[in-house]
Amino acid sequence: MEFERILIRYGELSTKGKNRKQFVARLATNVKRVVQDMPEVKVHGERDRMQLYLNGAPYEKVLERLKSVFGIQSFSPVLKAELDVEAVKEAAYRLVSENHQPNGTFKVAARRGFRDFPLDSNELNQEIGAAVLRRIPDLTVNVKNPDIKLIVEVRADGVFLSSETILGAGGLPVSSSGRAMLMLSGGIDSPVAGYLAMKRGVEVEAVHFHSPPYTSEQAKQKAVDLAQKIAKYSGQIQMHVVPFTEIQETIKKQVPESYIMTVTRRMMLRITDELRKRRNGLAIVNGESLGQVASQTLESMIAINEVTSTSIIRPVATMDKNEIIEIAKAIDTFELSIQPFEDCCTIFTPAAPKTKPKLEKVQHYESFVDFDGLIEKALKNVETFPVEVAQEAAIKDEFADLF
After folding, report:
1. Which of the listed residues 47, 153, 337, 338 has the most CB atoms within 10 Å of its CB?
2. What is the domain extent for residue 378?
3. Which residue ranges make up the annotated binding site for ATP?
4. Residue after which a domain boundary falls, among 168, 200, 217
């Protein structure tokens, strides 16, 4: 069956009150982005839902792309009938017969939003149900658990019928909550943190620290590949690769071994924060999970965070590793993350790092080194480039039951 349009239902956007128009406009922009190579598709955003006019575009292809757009609760391919009872019955029959299996069941769920239509919701349920049953003899009604749920919506511009409801990604449209810098390592946690921040409407730019020859080109490429995976949700991600070798070598020479990790993380945070300022970002996102490693105890976080007053978003802070891995698998980053290439966070790792570092000691050790000069030198040599969507990336349809 060829559908002529797709109906998109909003999630949280419906609660945004006076700001709803801005959120809907952002969502419309993001939807247009995922179908930009299909110019025949027209996007029309309304206050309570959005419609895509396909104009001959393959609806299956459009449906697949909509699954990765944050801000959508659910969507359905729909048939449109005129505001005429007989036309609605005919469209209902076509839709049910297309999906009917022998001895199957169905129900009609009608809603009359246009009050001038001659039948109310209950009358529509009865009339349409009876008409379909007469034409499909082995079909029966099951109102609790039907094989086919026929949704009928009567609006001023026509009657819309659908029998398939596809769950969307939920959340808020990317970029509706501002921009933040994502500290993207090559591990499991940071891509998941980026994904979850994007789900809350944050546009992320990735910051990756590269320390050749201690970290390889494969490690750098792995970070780029991870950025490609999560770029699926925004279309493109700006990537900033920071040369970090000289800073790490200096820390190793000048700082007591037990404090190497703390100082390293402080320098990373200082550089990320400076990039945030230059890119007009509002926050920093990282993949810290409370208590997972030495630098992620509350005491370590306090000592590390002291270098900035910028808000730090930690989407996975309260998750255990299995919860993070489950999301990583769903967004197709897990297999990349476990590739055995060392990143900056794993080289020069001391055998016994401080889990409760003292801030005054950290500041004392740093006072003997011109870190300001080293940071400015690193910033002058940052490599910045756009990362496009990975064509082979595939997101599993494992969203929560929102509808």
Report:
1. 337
2. 179-388
3. 183-184, 208-209, 265, 287, 296
4. 168
